[in-house]
Amino acid sequence: MFVDFFIQRPVFATVCALFIILAGAISIPTLPIAQFPNLAPPQVVVTSIYIGANAQTVESSVTHSPWSKPSTACRG
Q1: Residue 52 Rama label (left phi>0; alpha psi -120 to 50; beta)
Q2: Rounded to whole angstroms, how far apart are CA atoms 17 and 23?
């Protein structure tokens, strides 16, 4: 069988393994790799209409974050 061939010839098996490793090491520099791929940064667009409100009121209403206040539900 195929396995018996390499078991009976360990030097040949070692040479084959080293040849495969050497071929892989030589081919690594030729692989095309993009160092910095083009990625679009995430964007969020929010449109809100508050009739009669100024810009500061709209901003504070839209950008309210639940993490801006310390949580009182978890006690140390």
Answers
A1: left
A2: 10
> How far apart, in whole angstroms, are the C-alpha atoms of residue 9 and residue 3?
10
Angle at CA of residue 44, ends 40 and 48, nearest 5°: 155
The model carries a pTM of: 0.41
Distance CA 20, CA 64 (A): 59
Q: How far apart are CA 57 and CA 46, in angstroms?
A: 15
Q: What is the pLDDT of residues 5-25, one digit of tens each?
A: 889 999 999 999 999 999 999
